[in-house]
Design brief:
16% strand, 4-stranded mixed sheet, 512 residues, Ribosomal Protein S5, domain 2
């Protein structure tokens, strides 16, 4: 008897339907075809033990299992339940009347309990798109899949409940999710708040501008000046994720196995801070079984690189293309996978090997040329993609001990959200552009137009301060964001002057 059950394979952040065909005939052999990897092949032993523990068995017949489409490699243990149901149906142990209406996924333990799988949200979206009535999957993944509307989602603890469901001897409770409730909970508080930061008002202002326009930031200053403290508080002033962004973020974290059990959508913006020993593959993604890297896990959030010059130069160079394209493509001999990677880069570094170049109180111990050599560990093209470069000066004792109240992140975030709404309206209908940091060169002159006085100011700044030509576009984008924060339709001189001030490393003689 030939029976078909349905599962799904995840490639990138998308899934495709996999048809598991099970045929039984006379003989005592077991064949599995359709490019299964070792984890899929080992499902035979897991299924056999799970069925035996629950009072069933794999029949002593010739069993041929084909996983179609046969030219796509099937990876992982999540097909155990799909294959097991196919074997039982082909042996007429369970009814086949409902089998073609449900997608079935889950890893089997030897006692028949179901273990969580990766990519449940992508699989549920594929099930709805292909017209399935519902999906059966491990209970730990049910809330995640239940976000998908118009799809019956059943979280199942063991294989016994699945068998009873198809035999109409037992019922399952449909899992329902309320994403709005989790959204309100996620936005209700944050562990980090800008009110905790004493002094550093100019840096807080720079971080507010970065959040409002989605700009990349470089903080350069001596040890203990507060660079890491400020960076960790940036997500607290970013706008909350909308539903589309939350779906994208959840897909990536689910595929990478970072979502956790009994979770639905990720509503908090990611903050990823890999150590400087990170490899190219861990940062960008890849592997024999391609997985998203840190830049994709930071999608719609913040990628924080502390001690930037300590990262291997080759590792930093792989950031250039994803920062520009907002996505990364991982190519292998037989497959090419694309992961989104629209993140804000926040980098922190000391100004020199000893850390005290330009320190107001301590003497730098570095030799002649050491400072520039230290900065040269980071390439010009990477610096070119960082809009705001600002020096962090140590906090004065009076500021450190002051009882003066400072703004909470919630207040700053309200201003950021207002500026983002202006940008959303400005770029409405233009795909791929959501903030000022993403303005392409062909739109820059129209969006960031300057009057004659403004042109004269930026010309003077480039000549007097030694600003590089590559800084010009970045200054225009940042000044546009500052104008949005002021709810100004035109870029004024004060907006332009403030943006020029955020190009510390472009000044002639810095580090020399």
């Amino acid at each position: 008897m030939l029976v078909k059950t349905y599962g799904s394979a995840v490639f990138g952040i998308k899934a495709i339907t996999v048809t598991v065909e099970v045929d039984m005939d006379h003989g005592i052999q077991f064949f599995m075809v359709g490019l299964p990897d070792n984890a899929v092949r080992e499902s035979h032993q897991r299924i056999e033990s799970a069925l035996r523990t629950n009072g069933y068995k794999i029949p002593g017949k010739k069993i041929t299992i084909n996983m179609a489409p046969a030219d796509i490699r099937k990876e992982g243990s999540s097909y155990d339940l799909t294959i097991a149901m196919g074997i039982l149906a082909a042996n007429e142990v369970i009814k086949t009347t409902k089998l073609d209406r449900y997608m079935i996924m889950g890893e089997l333990s030897l006692d028949g309990s179901l273990l969580p799988i990766k990519g449940a949200l992508s699989i549920a979206l594929e099930a709805r798109e292909k017209g399935f009535k519902g999906i059966l999957l491990p209970r730990q993944n049910a809330l995640e899949a239940a976000i998908v509307s118009d799809l019956e989602v059943y979280g199942v603890p063991t294989i016994r409940e699945v068998i009873d469901f198809f035999n109409d001897t037992g019922s399952l409770t449909r899992t329902l999710a309320d994403p709005s409730a989790e959204s309100d909970l996620a936005c209700s508080g944050n562990d980090y708040d800008f009110a905790d930061v004493k002094g550093q008002e100019n840096i807080k202002r720079a971080m507010e501008i970065a959040a409002a326009g989605g700009h990349n930031v470089l903080l350069i200053g001596p040890p203990g000046a507060g660079k890491t403290m400020l960076a960790k508080r940036l997500p607290s002033i970013l706008p909350p994720l909308n539903f589309k962004e939350a779906m994208e973020t959840t897909k990536i974290h689910s595929i990478a196995g970072k979502l956790g059990n009994n979770r639905s959508l990720v509503w908090t913006r990611p903050f990823r801070a890999p150590h400087h020993t990170v490899s190219n593959m861990a940062l960008v993604g890849g592997g024999s079984i391609p997985q998203p890297g840190e830049i994709s896990l930071a999608h719609n959030g913040v990628l924080f690189l502390d001690e930037l010059p300590e990262f291997k130069r080759a590792v930093l160079e792989v950031l250039r293309q994803p920062m520009e394209d907002r996505s990364v493509t991982i190519s292998r001999a037989k497959v090419s996978i694309e992961y989104p990677s629209s993140f804000m880069l926040v980098a922190a570094m000391n100004p020199c090997p000893c850390g005290y170049y330009n320190h107001p109180a301590r003497q730098c111990q570095c030799g002649s040329g050491d400072v520039q050599k230290y900065l040269n560990r980071i390439s010009g093209p990477l610096f070119d993609r960082i809009d705001i470069q600002i020096e962090v000066i140590p906090v004065d004792f009076n500021d450190l001990t002051s009882n003066r109240k400072t703004e909470h992140s919630e207040i700053i975030r309200d201003r950021v959200i207002s500026a983002r709404k202006i940008q959303e309206k400005r770029f409405e209908g233009i795909p791929g552009i959501h903030s000022n940091a993403q303005i392409p060169p062909k739109m820059l002159r129209n969006v960031c137009s300057l009057n004659d006085t403004g042109k004269l100011l930026i010309k003077t700044a480039m000549e007097k301060l030694g600003l590089s030509a590559r800084a010009y576009d970045r200054i225009l984008k940042v000044s546009r964001t500052i104008a949005d924060l002021d709810n100004a339709s035109e870029i004024r001189l004060e907006h332009l002057a403030e943006a020029i001030n955020y190009r510390s490393l472009d000044r002639d003689g810095w580090g020399k």
